[in-house]
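Kindly go through the following sequence and its backbone structure tokens. Advise at your convenience whether the structure tokens fit the sequence:

___
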Amino acid sequence: MTRFVGAIDQGTTSTRFILFDEAGEIVAIDRREHAQICPKPGWVEHDPAEIWRNTTATIEGALAKASLDCADLAAVGVTNQRETTLLWDKETGAPLHNAIVWMDTRVEPLVQKFSRQGVAGRLRERTGLPLASYFSALKLVWLFENLPQAKARAARGQALFGTVDSWLIWNLTGGRHLTDATNASRTLLMNLETLDWDEELLRLFDVPRACLPQICASSEIYGACAPPLKGVPLAGALGDQQAALLGQACLAPGQAKNTYGTGCFLLMNTGGSPRESKRGLVTTLAYKLGASPPVYALEGSVAIAGALTQWLRDNLGLIQSSAEIEPLAGSVPDNGGVYFVPAFSGLYAPRWRADARGLIAGLTLHATKAHIARAALEASAFQTRELAEAMAEDAGAPLVELRVDGGMAENDLLMQFQADILKAPLARPKSIETTALGAAYAAGLATGFWKSEADIAAHWRCARRWSPSMGETERARLLEGWEKAVERSLGWES
């Protein structure tokens, strides 16, 4: 009897394999970090071969920890960093270039080129997305322009494009070229209403259809896995933030979650039709479960959240481990007037300012590394407030409750500050591994391991809540300081 579902969680900084039981509880987990390759300022790459090696290692590691084998698994799902762009050889499976990561800004000249053509409005209408370096299409254009013969080979179907889910599915199934609709919705190439590649947009970016994967539902059987999951049905795939929305059981319109990972991603379920944003948010696909109609979401994205803690650790040596940041930040009563704007790749929603760059403002002789650590944590909360305000205006109603997850959601100091600055309650579930859980749910629903969305809702359990306790005067003072700091970060790059 198969009693477990596996989930591959391939993120920006690491890959994990997690085993879940029927109650959605974690049975075993294994994790491997991969290198962040930064050949030039603003460029961020990953080695696809390393990601695949780490994927197989984590699968083997988690199964060994649980003393299980493939026969014990009913299904496996995949969730992944979105927008990160790959091109590989169809015959050999060898990558033609390192993966270009979602936060990479090398395509900014292409953004300006297409912006001058006046296509931004058409792109948002068709895809729900703004014209920005964030999304995959321009990264693919860059690869075509910079790799000899890549475009010609793609036109013949000899070179294949995919986001990370496609790369993993290709390797897991022995060569099936597929993607799910949530990942496809992040490329600037998929029509948000038809859930198919848009011919007009393919012509606009000169992308041959022959190199594109087939778009599938988020929950359906894609095929049987090859080793190290030999014979296990691969039955679910979602981009990481959509997976977290599903894992948080945000199944009704108006329910919202925020994931504090490498970046910070706030999504609100908006139901069965796309809702246009007037405040700079992204309209995106939330999920499509089998033959059921698609569900849509509004999304706001912050480029740098947990990555800032890693930067303080790895680049500045301010801390020795990420776990040190909470006690360090908590050793001072406030930020001491220090603000940290982590616009390393510009600012995403709702500002969309590619000309912004990171800065630390408000430094005096009173400031210590503890104040800088606190300001780094607070930056995620300030930016989340901006997203929540924009989302409330677009949705026509304020957030009643924000469900939180991701590694930084374990930081109680940050969560209380978030509730205070947001002026809204937060709820952290019993398990913050909601991204992997969402992929497991998708796979389990496709194979009958779980019967319905009601099973998902029944599994969600709150571990802790935070309510705002900050006074209005203090909140206003902090927000004024944050706005000053952000204004000084703008226009740094021409």
Notes: The CA atoms of residues 85 and 163 lie 5 Å apart. DSSP finds 16 helices and 23 strands in the chain. The two ends are 61 Å apart (CA to CA). Residues 369-395 form the longest helix (27 residues).
